[in-house]
Amino acid sequence: MTDSADIVPATVVALVPRDRVRAMIKAAFPRRKARLILPRSAADFAAVFHNELVDAAVIDVGSGNGDTRAAGALARDFPSVPFFGISGLLGAEGPAVAQCVSLGFADVLVEGVDESVARELITRHGFTARFSDALRIPPPGLGLSSGVQRKAWEYIVAHAGRRVHTMGLAHRLGVTREHLSRTFAADGAPNLKRVIDLVRLLAAAELSKNPGYDIRDVAAVLDFASSSHLSSTAQRVVGTKPASLSRLRSVDLILRFTRGHGRSRA
User: Fold this and answer.
1) pLDDT at residue 266 above 60?
2) pTM of the complete model
3) Burial of 216: CB neighbours in 10 Å, binned 0-12, 13-18, 19+
């Protein structure tokens, strides 16, 4: 199981106009536990999705203003990001809660009731947590069976497609970078750098399925140098164009990777 020290803090974007709800969210997501972004408008809320890898979105639907309604509609554009509403569940807030249901929100938290469990409820459904959980065990076709290989894999997938530096990974495992690269690729296993790129492309494929993203957005939020860099990585590592990522499943990409794309220069 991934060490808690390997977990990347969740990035949560929250549009919370009311002071008491903003205080609730700040208490639930202190700096040491998460990266909390608090935009002031629906436009700023939307812009975050094109600049950051967002794990979860929170909207104060109980505020009843136009910005929160507009922000909530983005749930349809970014289905890989769980959206959560916050409401007092008063009678007047019924239509707002109903809209959350129709838009496919993951949950609606109740102010005054769910404060103590808000962080757990939100982060366990976040993009990074789901991605890491789904890929925690290396696919058999990759041939990653040794302790070092599995620990490295867990660290890589815990970053959910964000850049992983081999020096940092080696330090985490208590070995030199040269030793890690050598032992990871032993017995015909894939090259470490190629595996890091594969995991980044698995995340890119998931994000590409969001109607609100184009290839430039995916490249930006995963910190590729450019959409051209993402394109060349996809061609080199899985033998496909980035435009095809949205229709390919993880199993498809891994199969393409194992068919001759797993080795590169160290």
Assistant:
1) no
2) 0.91
3) middle
Helix (H), strand (E) at residue 108:
strand 107-110
Show the tokens assigned to 98.
């109903």
Rounded Cα distance between 141 and 199, Å, is 14
Residue 2 has pLDDT above 70, yes or no: no
Does some domain include residue 219? yes
Where are the extended beta strands (E) located within 44-89? 56-59, 83-87
Compute and round to an integer the Cα radius of gyration of the chain.
Answer: 20
Which of the pair, 111 or 261, is modelled with greater confidence? 111
By the 10 Å C-beta count (0-12 exposed, 13-18 middle, 19+ buried), 191 is classed as middle
H-helix segments, 103-146: 118-123, 127-135
Q: Both tokens of residue 20?
A: 């008491």
Query: Do 163 and 231 fall into the same domain?
Result: yes
6 pLDDT tier (thresholds 50, 70, 90)? low
pLDDT of 41? 96
State the total domains in the chain: 2
CA 174, CA 203: separation in Å to the nearest integer?
27
